[in-house]
Amino acid sequence: MPDDIKVIKYFLWDHYFLKYHIKKMAQLPSYSTASQSIEDFLTSQQGLMKQPVASCTFTIFDLETTGFFPAIGDEIISIGAIKVKNFKIQYDEAFYTIVKPIGRIPKGIQDLTGLSEDILNKAEPFPVGISKFLDFCKGSILVAHPATFDIEFLKTTIKLWNLPNFSVNYVDSHLLANEQFQGLRNYLDELVVRFGIPERERHHALNDAIMTAEVFIKLIENFDQIKSIEELQPNKEKE
Fold first, then answer.
1. How far apart are CA 131 and CA 30, in angstroms?
2. Angle ∠(44,48,50) on CA atoms, nearest 5
3. Rounded to the nearest 5°, which phi and psi values hold at 11?
4. CATH topology of domain 3-232
């Protein structure tokens, strides 16, 4: 669907449909649980940005979504994450959940992600998914590639659900790569090839999170003068 038609459809119909379902969901215990999980996660992050990189736990995550624009109805349909401690991937601490969207899923997205309408209809709603994800991430710094997409998509979705403000600390591994490899394309696919990382099936949130974690380790190993997490990204805009 062309973006201009999508915008018109959202404001004429989808916007009200979304608000109606969110209002219904807000009456359920899972909504309150999600709100508490957000608060608990943000509290657990206090002081972490000043910790030494080597002693911090990072949660590298990836979202699969129905599109690029949550402000006009695109939704999260899966979240994958894995932890990195002491510059090593904790393969036994992996997270993956499928999220039931409110709207209909384009056939192209189903084909791309392997998440059929039947699978998605049996999944848990966003408040349950975000609660489980943030409980998994507690006490860690989030990492995404690029965070300009994944973090902002999370923030916008959480805001649309009228949940607490998601003022989160994170590292953007794409910015790290841009600083290290200036003038080159530094998206995930290019970095996986550049670093000789085994390729996994793309557009699966956990696979993409694992490859991002492998890239992230390569990147931070090259920043041997960095002492604290906040120094990792001197050019990241302060919020």
1. 8
2. 155
3. -80, -20
4. Nucleotidyltransferase; domain 5 (3.30.420)
